[in-house]
Write a structure and sequence with these properties.
Layout lengths: L11 H7 L5 H8 L3 H20 L2 H36 L7 H54 L15 H50 L6 H29 L7 E4 H18 L3 E7 L4 E4 L1 H19 L3 E9 L2 E7 L34 H11 L3 E6 L5 E8 L6
Parallel strand pairs: 2-4
Antiparallel strand pairs: 1-3, 4-5, 5-7, 6-7
Helix pairs in contact: 1-3, 4-5, 5-6, 6-7, 7-10, 8-9, 9-10
């Protein structure tokens, strides 16, 4: 590493830090070490950077363009001088060596030869200079991408690279990098929110359990059947939350095995609606089945699809009662389409996609924690996608929320 002249005592460390090839986080760590250790690390990093840049893309492109320019100049000069020498031989064959015209022609041809060589050299140097500028322009976005990738690997976020002015592959690559950084930031924010949501859903039943148990220990709360029922309820809430988290993790990671079998859609939906009929009557609602054609059948995992349809119907009864819940099944070109529609207030526009996120509730203040873990729709979508299908939410034109479930043709899942 070059050593700075006339550097004040004690300032060598700051000088090396300003020239540091480390990232900001690495520099903060190494800056607190001794100046000797810091300089040795800087030397090692600069040596690595020099080896990387020695035959980098820019230098290879410059060398390639210079070689092409040299070859072009050499070929042009070779044929030009060959033509000049041929004309010289033909001209000199008709002249005597003592004539004045001979000497004049000889000097003129010598000037032409010198001029050709000089022009070739100038062309070569000009081509090399232009090649250096062009390769610098081409590789500058790559250098920015390399620096951005290193910062990203070091944990820095909020990186946005300037787009190259030319609408070429480098601009597309830069856009892809910026999109990658944005996606990572969204994933990290989602992960933080998920951890906070899990902590929130765990904290409430744990707090209830703690207060109940401490009350029993202090003799404030009686140890009777009612107290045990309350404790059992909180334990079941925790159990259901943990089970839902595990199920969601298995489905999204592909760790769950699906048992495909041929199922009669009419029989399948009638069995599910029968299970909800009593609850629907208590809430003043009704379930209507609309299946066409009636002999409709397809292949899927009936246990997992029962969980999906049960969740959709349960949500419809919970948020749209009293009213009619319409369950439809239709054959379409790509396979089977099931839909569950209620006649309630529908979903807010911004919630049409967010309802499938973990722990999302349209109104947290009004939603009881006993009504669900907030993972039902996330699990439902993951199960449908594991079948190769899609689960989407929208608001019906005539009112109410509409959940549409599309499954691919049975012949694609043998």
């Amino acid at each position: 590493m070059p050593k700075r002249k006339n550097c004040k005592p004690g300032r060598e460390h700051a000088y090396y830090f300003r020239r540091s090839p480390l990232t900001q986080e690495e520099g903060e760590t190494w800056r607190h070490k001794s100046p000797f250790v810091y300089r040795e690390e800087m030397k090692r990093r600069h040596a690595e950077m020099w080896r990387e840049r020695r035959w980098g893309v820019r230098r290879r492109l410059s060398a390639m363009f210079a070689f092409v320019a040299l070859a072009a100049v050499g070929i042009t000069t070779w044929f030009t001088l060959g033509a000049v020498f041929g004309a010289q031989q033909e001209l000199f064959s008709h002249m005597t060596t003592r004539s004045g015209d001979f000497q004049i022609a000889k000097e003129a041809l010598a000037r032409v030869t010198r001029t050709a060589f000089i022009a070739g050299l100038l062309s070569f140097f000009l081509a090399s200079f232009v090649a250096g500028i062009a390769t610098r322009f081409l590789t500058q976005p790559l250098k920015a991408l390399t620096d951005g990738a290193r910062k990203l690997a070091a944990g820095e976020r909020g990186i946005r690279l300037d787009l190259p002015p030319a609408r070429d592959e480098l601009r597309v690559l830069t856009l892809a990098f910026n999109g990658l950084v944005e996606g990572l930031e969204e994933q990290e924010a989602w992960r933080r929110n998920m951890v906070a949501d899990i902590a929130h859903d765990l904290r409430t039943p744990l707090a209830v359990l703690r207060s109940e148990i401490e009350g029993m220990q202090d003799g404030v709360v009686k140890q009777d059947r009612a107290s045990l029922e309350r404790l059992h309820t909180e334990v079941m809430l925790l159990t259901r939350l943990v089970a839902d988290l595990r199920t969601l993790s298995l489905v999204e990671s592909g760790g769950i095995s699906l048992a495909f079998e041929k199922v009669s859609v009419k029989t399948f939906l009638e069995r599910i609606s029968t299970g909800f009929s009593l609850r629907a009557q208590e809430l003043g609602s009704s379930l209507e089945l609309d299946i066409y054609p009636e002999n409709l059948s397809t292949r899927f995992d009936p246990e997992q699809m029962t969980r999906v349809l049960s969740n959709l119907i349960d949500n419809a009864l919970r948020y749209a009662s009293p009213g009619t819940i319409e369950i439809k099944a239709r054959r379409f070109e790509e396979g089977l389409k099931l839909s569950v529609r209620d006649h309630g207030p529908g979903l807010p526009q911004e919630a049409l996609e967010q309802v499938f996120e973990r722990f999302y509730r349209t109104d947290r203040a009004r939603t009881s924690r006993k009504e669900g873990s907030g993972l039902g729709l996330a699990i439902a979508r993951a199960i449908v996608e594991a079948h190769g299908g899609r689960l989407e939410a929208e608001n019906h034109l005539e009112g109410g929320a509409l959940f549409s479930l599309s499954l691919p043709d049975a012949s694609s899942r043998q």
